[in-house]
Design a protein that fits this description.
- The complex is a heterodimer of chains A (about 400) and B (about 400).
- Chain A contains 17 helices and nine strands.
- Chain A has about 400 residues and is of the alpha/beta class.
- Chain A is globular and about 55 Å long.
- In chain B, strands 1, 2, 3, 4, 5 and 6 form a six-stranded parallel beta sheet that branches.
- In chain B, helix 1 packs across helix 14, helix 2 packs across helix 16 and helix 7 packs parallel to helix 8.
- Classes of the chains: A alpha/beta (about 400), B alpha/beta (about 400).
Chain lengths: ~400, ~400
């Protein structure tokens, strides 16, 4: 979650500008055929915050935001992890209750749209949804603070269908260090390691986006199942603590894991990242700035942040970032560790999208660009979704093995 | 552990003589055949507190204390048990939600640990399936609406996790409903309380009216589209406790397909016991103080020590001795009133058990006593479990109906 929801005016103006630059017509028949026959699985979207407002209707095309069913259909996005998220400042039992509220909000959204959507908690469920031409809806929990230091709560989230948990968000929690906070635990505490073990047993994918490099190393060592970075990009292309170094990506991939590229402009472009830091400070601290005006309304906060960057962009204080940066990051990882270890973790509805990737309807561009780069169809399918399905299957297998032990 | 010692002593002294003299402990072939072929369902049991008190209680081995473990459930052919998710009414807010999740996890953990003996059941069909497989069905009921923290989304997640009834209140009022043991403040159910009942109907979570005020009961009865249950309440006509139901309430409950599940707690069974308690309030004060001293905040310890200490006062002649036959009296009273729409809601591990019903192994005595009273085998099977299964199936049907477009 970074921020979202570009004002309509900016949306229209950019869309016009870009449709000239990279029109939908440029998607070749081959790319279309490939893209629309693939399982396209995005591991991170923050649309859940919009569900909570009670005013958002995902079934119809919305003038704002990045995700709704018509645009998912248009972009061939047929499997989506919706994030269960609240700021790290919400802890203890209130975080547990709010998490249940968000899980409920996702499930009710599915319930209202059973013609188009299906709740999925396994790789097989995702494939079944695809077979039925439905969008698979999955849940990931973004931040270990939401378990209130309680493994029982973690297990119940697993039972309720949560299939990954990001160990931290922007702040350290009581048992794990975040990449955007001062180290307090030297990675994972003993309890933090127990959390990882329990996630393995419960079949919840360990997500190391947001965590400190040491937390990542600790989790990688402890986990019996492959890890994912649900929404992180490459640090060698853009030196941001939220991104992964080449060494980390290699270590992640060596254990079967996958890095899912985040489309946030600050994580894609060094130039943008530098400019942003110069004018606004650290991106991870921006949520504090908008907290005052929005209180607990996360959708309001995301909008405020988005308007803030839109204004800076308009004033020329931030550079334009093209969607092609996403391809650069994918390509960098593929060259480093192969196409079996990279995928898509947009951060739709939670971050500032690059130009040309204004919403999920633009996803076929990724397939087109990768084909032009000479990627095989098989590699492209893997990047679009098969890699993460492979990790899910492995996590499920490890869970079955661990559960069978006394 | 203390309780078993006192039990053994009681058996050696008066207890064994009383039980042997009055009823005989031997089961007839007919009683045995009937009891052990029936699905015996108990809708209220507080053993969950033992799962979470930090002493690593496990249902597997025979336990020297308490009333419930797998060997004794097998011995008494208890085929399906609702484990209570319970925290005191004074614990509210998100903390109550968090702690309820811990207890749900604890129940599910026991089922995971004993796959050959236990099966998590959420429907009547699953209870029957467990019975077919020779397993004990474990079910969950939330005892007190305070645990949803006035949040319907939380109620829905409890249901997703397998909770199949919710008692609208415990001993204290909640923000949306009055309890039978608190000063009335909402005149029954508030508008939100009625929404809770409607959502429970939709989810297939049985509305449990044990513990609630008479007005809350009537409000729930009016709103609910599915039959209600009193998961652990007895008859007020025999023992005038606010936790028990009047004859009129029992009639109105069963007229809408509901079932009253008799609670074995001595102070709900016996007017004599209740009068003695009222006459000597210092006894309960002493017991409460001693329990607090021994157990602190450990709820499981409190519940079991309370039972043990009560028996010490009985043995000392300071409180009357209540026999398990009082359970039969309550069953018989309800049956005479409304027919065999009655069942078993022991409150094992959460109340003071009468003599002769110390634990689940003693349950066949109920079948034996009902046969002796001339009950038909069909009626006895209903009382032992079929009534609850019928009610569950009906609640499921209403839920499906409400969810179909």
């Amino acid at each position: 979650m970074i921020r979202a929801i570009r004002p309509l005016a900016v949306c229209l103006c950019l869309a016009l500008f870009l449709s000239a630059a990279v029109s939908a017509d440029e998607i070749s028949d081959r790319a279309k055929k490939l893209h629309f026959s693939s399982i396209v699985l995005d591991t991170h979207a923050d649309t859940t915050q919009r569900f909570l407002t009670g005013k958002f209707d995902i079934s119809k095309r919305n003038p704002d935001g990045h995700i709704d069913i018509p645009r998912m259909r248009e972009g061939g996005l047929n499997a989506q992890f919706f994030s269960i998220w609240m700021p790290g400042a919400v802890t203890g039992a209130p975080a547990v209750q709010k998490s249940l509220d968000q899980i409920d909000a996702v499930k009710r959204m599915v319930h209202r749209n059973t013609k188009d959507m299906m709740l999925a908690t396994s790789a097989a469920d995702v494939r079944e949804a695809h077979k039925q031409h439905k969008i698979a809806v999955l849940m990931g929990m973004e931040g270990g603070h939401m378990i209130a230091n309680d493994l029982a709560v973690l297990r119940m989230y697993g039972e309720l269908g949560v299939r990954y948990m990001t160990l931290t968000h922007f702040y350290n929690n009581d048992w794990g260090d975040s990449s955007t906070d001062k180290p307090a635990h030297n990675g994972l505490t003993d309890f933090g390691k127990d959390v990882v073990r329990e996630m393995n047993r419960a079949g919840i994918v360990v997500d190391i986006s947001h965590v400190s490099d040491k937390t990542f190393a600790d989790a990688l060592e402890i986990s019996k199942a492959p890890l994912i970075a649900s929404h992180s990009s490459s640090r060698s292309l853009d030196n941001h603590p939220r991104n992964m170094t080449d060494e980390m990506i290699k270590a992640l991939a060596a254990k079967g894991g996958v890095i899912q590229i985040n489309y946030e402009r600050s994580y894609l472009s060094q130039e943008y990242n530098d400019a942003y830091k110069a004018v606004a400070g650290d991106v991870s601290r921006m949520e504090e700035k908008f907290k005052k005006e929005c209180g607990d309304d996360m959708e309001c906060e995301l909008k405020a942040e988005s308007q803030f960057t839109a204004k800076l962009l308009a004033e020329g204080k931030l550079p334009h970032v093209s969607w092609e940066k996403i391809i650069d990051h994918i390509d960098h990882v593929a060259k480093l560790v192969g196409a079996d270890h990279v995928g898509l973790g947009s951060d739709f509805d939670g971050a500032d999208m690059p130009e040309g990737m204004e919403d999920c309807s633009k996803l076929p561009r990724i397939t087109e660009a990768l084909l032009r780069k000479g990627y095989s169809e098989k590699d492209i399918r893997n990047i679009l979704g098969e890699n993460i399905l492979r990790v899910m299957e492995q996590v499920e297998r490890v869970s079955r093995e661990l559960r069978a032990q006394p | 552990m203390f309780r078993q010692i006192s039990l053994a002593m009681a058996c050696l002294s008066a207890g064994a003589i009383v039980v042997a003299a009055v009823t005989g402990t031997a089961l007839s072939e007919r009683a045995r055949a009937l009891h052990f072929s029936s699905v015996v369902v108990d809708t209220h049991d507080d053993t969950t507190q033992r799962f979470i008190d930090g002493n690593n209680f496990d249902l597997g081995p025979r336990s020297a204390d308490g009333s419930i473990d797998i060997p004794r459930m097998r011995q008494g052919n208890l085929g399906a048990i609702f484990f209570s998710i319970w925290i005191p009414s004074k614990i509210t807010g998100a903390t109550a939600v968090n702690r309820a999740l811990e207890q749900i996890n604890a129940v599910r953990d026991q089922v995971r640990k004993h796959p050959d003996d236990l099966l998590l059941a959420t429907t009547a069909a699953q209870v029957r399936e467990a019975h077919r497989q020779g397993k004990i069905a474990a079910l969950m009921g939330v005892e007190g609406g305070h645990m949803i923290h006035s949040d319907i989304a939380v109620l829905r997640q409890f249901a997703s996790l397998g909770v199949r009834y919710m008692t609208l209140t415990h001993s204290g009022n909640v923000d949306w409903a009055d309890s039978s043991t608190d000063a009335a403040m909402h005149n029954g159910l508030t508008a939100f309380g009625k929404d809770v009942v409607r959502e429970m109907n939709r989810l297939g979570v049985i509305v449990d009216i044990s513990h609630v005020s008479d007005k809350t009961f009537y409000d729930a009865l009016a709103v609910s589209k599915a039959p209600l249950i009193a998961s652990h309440s007895s008859c007020r006509a025999i023992c005038d406790a606010p936790r028990n139901m009047t004859d009129q309430m029992i009639k109105d409950l069963t007229a809408k397909g509901g079932v009253i599940q008799i609670n074995y707690h001595v102070a709900f069974l016996s007017q004599e016991f209740r009068d003695a308690e009222k006459k000597h309030p210092e006894i309960n004060d002493q017991i409460a103080a001693e329990v607090k001293k021994r157990c602190g905040d450990n709820e499981a310890c409190q519940l079991m020590e309370g039972d043990r200490l009560t028996r010490e006062y009985v043995d000392a002649g300071k409180l009357p001795r209540v026999s398990y036959e009082k359970i039969i009296e309550h069953i018989d009273h309800a049956v005479k009133l409304v027919g065999a729409d009655v069942g078993l809601g022991s409150d094992f591990d959460g109340a003071n058990m009468p003599y002769g019903m110390e634990d689940a192994s003693k349950l066949p005595m109920i079948t034996k006593a009902l046969l002796k009273k001339g009950y038909s085998e069909a009626d006895i099977r209903k009382i032992l479990g079929e009534n609850t299964l019928r009610l569950m199936a009906e609640v499921e049907r209403v839920s499906q109906q409400m969810n179909s477009p």
